[in-house]
Known about the structure:
By secondary structure, this protein is α+β, with helices and mostly antiparallel strands.
Amino acid sequence: MIDFLFTADALMALVTLTFLEIILGIDNIVFISIAANKLPEHQQTKATNIGLLLAMVQRIVLLFFVSFLIGLKEPFFHIETSWLHLEISWQALILFTGGLFLIYKSTSEIHEKVELPKHGENELKGKKIKSLSQAIVQILLIDFIFSVDSILTAVGMTNGIHPNHNYTLVLMIIAVVISIVVMIGFANPIRKFINTHPSMQLLGLAFLILIGFMLITEAAHLSHTKLFGNTVGAIPKGYLYFAIAFSLFVEFLNFKMQKKQK
């Protein structure tokens, strides 16, 4: 086992998997930051750390059920009409439900911040413990949705590295642990930055709407959806990450300009 972990193929796969998990975890960090910032200040760091640690445990447990996750890709229901073709699988349903939840959660948060700016402060009083548990549950649910996609991608990347499945399983677990440790290191500074800059809060919520829409289109793609003869394609994640990076760059220039004006 030790000899395998220090081979060139294993180290390259470990670096690639860790990088993949961190990149895919950007979506998670944005959601965690917004969910945790709804809590009282003394519970925000706790919710972020507990949520990420439980997410790590959840991903490791899911890795032991890889065959079950692969089975989620198989269609269990077909719809065939003159204008619609669908091959519905559990994976597509999970992504579709998660996309709808992200869009609903983000739009309701934007409405609350724009139309009812003091509503959140009033609601936090008297239900702090309940809010902490709700935040952690939401973090775990969203992480489960992202985990299904990332774990299946990781399985495809490690396929063929070693004939013993246990070796590749250990490799994926190490990648998950490293990526979660890195995310814990960056999650709280990112959360504090988002919390202290209202424009970043709205920008983060807008990102979640984009991610929700991407999950819905990916679910349609996995279902081999054809609408009036037109196939629904998946949106390349690179486009989404470029849009996020470009928006952050513009916001950074805006901060610099505001500082100079002050």
